[in-house]
UniProtKB/TrEMBL annotation:
Gene that encodes it: sucC
GO cellular component terms, A-Z: cytosol; succinate-CoA ligase complex
Cofactor note as given: Binds 1 Mg(2+) ion per subunit.
Residues involved in ATP binding: K50, G57, R58, G59, V113, E123
UniProt protein name: Succinate--CoA ligase [ADP-forming] subunit beta
Length: 403
């Protein structure tokens, strides 16, 4: 589960990670009040206004309606509501949102941390994630902070520092010092970075997160180390242990169909194709998507109804798939192991009658327990639903349906 930057920073701060202080607002007037509070608390006189959406590249992105960047600098209190108005309510398009962009409902008014001092500020990159290949967490760091890390990794892999953490013992002090040393830090900045890495790792483990990405990590001109940005992805499977973090979910940032599917206990991911698919089991769903492509179509979604599929879940799946105007046919592919095929067939018939006229052809492929009985129920239903036994047969019927 992704959370906003302002939420991520509050999480990090609770574990002792130094952050760029900021206050969230949802209106230009609220942004001005936030700036005044920030001025009183930190003494800052310049303010960074940041769009709060679940996507990266905000600084380079553009708000369609105003042409404003997703991250702007206000050099006075009077400038804050003007700059915030250029972002709030607009559609921000970045390299991660696609052409449709995302509506900005909130901005973070943050303190200016690039102040003059004894030395030049320096940006670094730091992330923590699970390396599944090695079965351990890995800290990734680079001196090239603030840049597209993917491009750095591709063109200058030698600039990516990696430190794997043994899950049996956790992060050791020498490992945090090793990363700070490889980043070229010394003196107080070195000590600050060691403390920053240690606190960040404690936050990662303590929150059961799937990924932390801090880009940039800033060394200020007076050698403080702090998180200027923060991208946090929480592990959905562990949220039952963190009800406070689960409450941070912003469904407005998610696909409405995926949210609706989740309420019905369905695993749904919208794609760009023309054949809707409803399957029981993730592996079978992947194979079904391959089969659709081989038949000349493109999968319109990934939809796993699970092992306990019934008329209610099948109907919910139908309603979700049919909300996609690109769908020209629906393929239901079920292996009757935990659930019997005749039960699925009855569920399809009941769901079809409940919804009423379904404008696209439906192909139902049933295999496993009571498959023949299931096919008979489908064929004798009198509905515009055709049955298939083999994958080849189902593929041919899909091809005919979308031709």
């Amino acid at each position: 589960m992704n959370i906003h930057e302002y939420q991520a920073k509050e999480l990090l701060k609770s574990y002792g990670v130094r952050i760029q202080e900021g206050i969230v607002a949802d209106s230009p007037e609220g942004a001005l009040e936030a700036a005044k509070k920030l001025n009183a608390a930190t003494g800052t006189s310049w303010y960074v206004i940041k769009a709060q959406i679940h996507a990266g590249g905000r600084g380079k992105g553009l708000v369609n309606e105003t042409g404003s960047r997703g991250v702007v600098l206000a050099k006075s209190l009077e400038d804050v509501p003007v700059k915030a108005a250029g972002i709030l309510g607009g559609t921000l398009v970045t390299i991660q949102t696609g052409d449709e962009g995302k509506k900005v409902n909130k901005v973070l008014v943050a303190e200016d941390v690039y102040y003059p001092g004894a030395s030049e500020p320096k940006e670094y990159y730091l992330s923590i994630l699970l390396d599944r290949g090695k079965g351990s967490n890995v800290i990734m760091a680079s001196t090239e902070g603030g840049m597209d890390i993917e491009e750095v990794a591709e063109k200058h892999p030698e600039k990516i520092i990696k430190e794997w953490i043994d899950p049996k013992v956790g992060l050791q002090g020498f490992q945090a010092r090793k990363v700070a040393f490889k980043l070229g830090l010394e003196g107080n900045a070195f000590k600050e970075m060691v403390k920053f890495i240690t606190s960040l790792y404690n936050a990662y483990v303590g929150s059961d997160s799937a990924q932390f990405e801090i880009n940039p990590v800033l060394k200020t001109s007076d050698d403080k180390i702090l998180a200027v940005d923060a991208k946090v992805n929480l592990d959905d499977n562990a949220l039952y242990r963190h009800q406070d973090l689960a409450a941070l979910r912003d469904v407005a940032e998610e696909d409405p169909l995926e949210v609706e599917a989740g309420k019905s206990g369905l695993n749904y991911v919208k794609l760009d194709g023309n054949v809707g698919c409803m399957v029981n089991g993730a592996g079978l769903a992947m194979a079904t998507m391959d089969m659709i492509k081989l038949s000349g179509g493109e999968p319109a979604n990934f939809l796993d109804v699970g092992g306990g599929a019934n008329a209610v879940t099948v109907e919910a799946g139908f309603r979700i798939i049919l909300q996609d105007p690109n769908v020209k046919a629906i393929l239901i592919n079920v292996f009757g192991g935990i659930v019997r095929c005749d039960r699925i067939a009855n569920g399809v018939v009941e769901a079809y009658k409940s919804i009423g006229n379904i404008p696209v052809p439906i192909i139902v492929r049933l295999q496993g327990t009571n498959a023949e009985e299931g096919a008979r129920i489908i064929d004798e239903s009198g509905l515009k639903v055709s049955s298939a036994i083999t994958l080849k047969d189902a593929a041919e019927k899909v091809k005919a349906a979308i031709s």
